Amino acid sequence: xxxxxxxxxxxxxxxxxxxxxxxxxxxxxxxxxxxxxxxxxxxxxxxxxxxxxxxxxxxxxxxxxxxxxxxxxxxxxxxxxxxxxxxxxxxxxxxxxxxxxxxxxxxxxxxxxxxxxxxxxxxxxxxxxxxxxxxxxxxxxxxxxxxxxxxxxxxxxxxxxxxxxxxxxxxxxxxxxxxxxxxxxxxxxxxxxxxxxxxxxxxxxxxxxxxxxxxxxxxxxxxxxxxxxxxxxxxxxxxxxxxxxxxxxxxxxxxxxxxxxxxxxxxxxxxxxxxxxxxxxxxxxxxxxxxxxxxxxxxxxxxxxxxxxxxxxxxxxxxxxxxxxxxxxxxxxxxxxxxxxxxxxxxxxxxxxxxxxxxxxxxxxxxxxxxxxxxxxxxxxxxxxxxxxxxxxxxxxxxxxxxxxxxxxxxxxxxxxxxxxxxxxxxxxxxxxxxxxxxxxxxxxxxxxxxxxxxxxxxxxxxxxxxxxxxxxxxxxxxxxxxxxxxxxxxxxxxxxxxxxxxxxxxxxxxxxxxxxxxxxxxxxxxxxxxxxxxxxxxxxxxxxxxxxxxxxxxxxxxxxxxxxxxxxxxxxxxxxxxxxxxxxxxxxxxxxxxxxxxxxxxxxxxxxxxxxxxxxxxxxxxxxxxxxxxxxxxxxxxxxxxxxxxxxxxxxxxxxxxxxxxxxxxxxxxxxxxxxxxxxxxxxxx
Length: 687
What we know:
Pfam families: MFS_1 (PF07690). By secondary structure, the protein is mainly alpha-helical. It has 2 domains: 421 residues, Growth Hormone, Chain: A, CATH 1.20.1250; 88 residues, no CATH class.
């Protein structure tokens, strides 16, 4: 006889229990759950996912925040970032001494075409930040540094084996874009680690790289080109150097961007809580076997979870779009960012003009038949290797200005904070004089507090001399004291802070008439008991501490004094270089002019970068990306027309023209120092 198959049940049906049996069952079940987890308590069961308030309460603690790193770790990271900011600009100029070999290798028709790989690389340095800087504000700085450093090595190696001129330019463009992270993101990383009062020295070291890199690359390139007679070895050298920097970056560079660090910590806390909930549910046997089978991830579920990591959600796509458009919106909507970006571009263009055209003045032209004759443009006829030493004037100017920035930038900033932005004699006071002035201000504040306390006691005594009649409940005293209304006055008790009370008491308003003297209890604290107690009974009123020393805060404009000095020196250096080269004076005179140009460009370059970082935190990477784009475009354009300009106008008139353009920017730091805060408030950028 066939039996009817029975469907197995997950658990036997529970019998009907009485109320007492049900309470006993629940108590035993709770004890069983607690026994599964000895640390659990009835109030903590079951665990729930973190709420929004709990997630917001999670903050970075100690060394988790890059601002709290040790001094050694901060400066180690700064040195690594500075190396990255040094190696990429070096790659732009290391090919300049080999442009003649490029010309002969690819049978080019013009000297300008042989400089094109240099300009294309610099254009890549400007384009890259518009993609990479927003990515660093989304996924973090460290992944962008590592990935782009590897790509930079790969494209440098490919450029060295380029079979044709077009391929060389394309590969150099991508190499420049990949190498742009160092010159563009470094300022933001330093802003992540250092407070505004400590940022000057770190920025001085970092800001030296984008300008010293081209100089060092030109000097090294001259000797390598003279020894090898081949432009490919220049790129092989660049590949080796960039590979060393890549290895250092992978081994020693950590994440610095605070929002990403905080987001990772909160995400880890959320995942940890979810894992604890899962473990608790498994330990307590709250999930039935069928539910476990239902929740077991299938292949499709696993595939979906994997693809979600690479395919962003709508919110992530919106963030990426906002981040990618942020540099453009800054450039075209914020006048401060736009003005300084263009002036930085002008300074950077002059640096590359000097780097590419120094061989025109100092190097012999006998091997270049298409070069201008000595009658058209004077030359000192140095050999290829020795002509690399002509960059020392520019390089020494960079070094002197960098050390000046390192030692004076933070000092000037701190003094201007103490002086509340007043220029002049404050900048020339010694540290002892400043400390004595601060102590005098502190003693004055203490005396003001004593005066306030004395006035408060006098107010209490005056109030007690005039007892008020009438209704206290509504504080409206209609009974007259005195002979007529002409001698009457009104009083108002305003709230002040009482150190013995937790809160500030609301204002109690009353109307009364006196015949002798008006009471001005402006510093008297009136108790809430005024509604039920006559004013004459208040004998425990204490004086308010109204004189509070206001905390003085720094402003980004305090970085600009050295920028003004740099803008003033730049025309002097240009005129000295141009006219001494025009009349072919002793070679030291144009080198001194180059020295002044180097000093001025570093002073402007570093102070403007720090100003942009201070002004546009936490979007400093996008702000510096704007500056990098403009300066790279102008740096790429200046060498292309420089030789034609020098041939048509001569060294003297050409440099006079550039000096006149430089003078146009001279009022900018003065105007921003006076009205910078107003402009920043008017053109606020919220991302």
